[in-house]
Amino acid sequence: MNEIASALAGKFIVFDGPDGSGKSTQMRRFMHWCREGGVVVKEVREPGGTSIGEQIRQVLLDTDNECMTIQCEMLLYMASRAQLVEQEIVPSLKRGELVVADRFVSATLAYQGAAGGLPKEWIQQVAEVAVSGNWPDLTLILDVDDVTAAGRLNPLLDRMELKGKNFHFKVREGFLDQVRAMPERYCVIDSTQREDTVELAVQNAIRERFC
Ligand code: TMP
Fold first, then answer.
1. How far apart are CA 14 and CA 26, in angstroms?
2. Does the model's pTM come out above 0.90?
3. Would you say residue 150 has pLDDT above 90?
């Protein structure tokens, strides 16, 4: 095991950011780098990551469910998260694995809070129940402007991606506000750059925080 591997064992890292930020690509590259270094990595995604969570994901992203209230939406994301934490995240952390999550509470604060209009205190309270103390060690926010993001999206948009420009502007601001409020728990990465450059920025951020 190299230096990175021992520093990351038993840690919980989240990749988050606006739709089209390239977080899934960067997450894949990061996990590859960790595994090469000898770290056992557990990958989870939200909403989903468990059988119950994947069923909730279908409901959340279904374009037929346009009438879903914002409260219902927030609670469904949290319900999926509660199952994921207990069933997958906690056991992996206990085994000393590195847990890498594609989105977490940061996404609910940005999408249902900053953009959707729910008070962040409500989200925080429900999140306390859903995560029961298992907060990430670091949340990486892959930041991207709306023009670059739109160019990266699949033309078959899901219910969340269809919400429009103004909504997605507020989502981005919602992520950046979290970084400003809790710099010790978050790190922002400029994701408009080339994939290789972003990958290095992620690695440097991890070294700076954990090594
Ligand atoms: P994905 O595109 O990263 O798979 O995420 C699915 C969509 O769900 C994406 O548009 C962001 C949205 N989302 C929320 O609105 N709130 C949340 O809490 C999470 C985890 C995702």
1. 11
2. yes
3. no
